[in-house]
Amino acid sequence: MKRLQAKAIGFLFICLLAIPNLAFKYMTSANHDLEKEFKGIISKYNKTPTVAQKLWDEVVSSYSGESRHYHNMEHLQNFYNQLKKCKQLTTDHDLLIIAMVYHDVVYNSPDHKDEERSADFAVERLKGIGYPEEKIASCKALILATKTHALSTDADTNYFNDADMTILGLDEATYKTYVKNVRLEYGNTPQFDTGRKRVLQYFLGMDRIYKTDFFYKVYEKPARANIAAEITTLP
User: Do 121 and 106 touch, CB atoms closer than 8 A?
Assistant: First the structure.
């Protein structure tokens, strides 16, 4: 997913996922699938059902804050839907799901290091269930990769980042809702419009917004159209 001035490059990616914050009217069958899959992965390493449930409840609580118009459960659900689409193309789907669930668990931290704090949060929780050390390191790297969404030599990281950015290439109505919610979260930031325009122009200047062919073929063209249209609305 992040403050405008304090995060520099990180803020270049404030336009990632934003779908309306329906807070906790989120218990659709799709969200149930996400909960079930997350708890199933946790249970592979800790068989106590209450442990998986406690971790899930903690995630839900973290993503349900009133100010989370952007970093909310709808954002997480969209990310999950996209990762399911490319599941057969990735090498460790379970790891991607865990990293996805924790990637924005810390939001609006005082030191503006949301990704770092989210990664540290994930590391602590995963150590507590006996998750393999090498997978913990990979999970941390995935979460930190969302700070810039740069091209990686690791294919799974590219799929992960592209899935996180699919909001840019969704239909026009969804994109407009996303823009509204970004403004709700960041609109009070000094020089928001100037920073936002710079972000969008940065995206249009990329050779490819989406690094994987899978997501590029579906979302690149509509993402560029959405971004170009939004730029015309900014001073």
Answer: yes
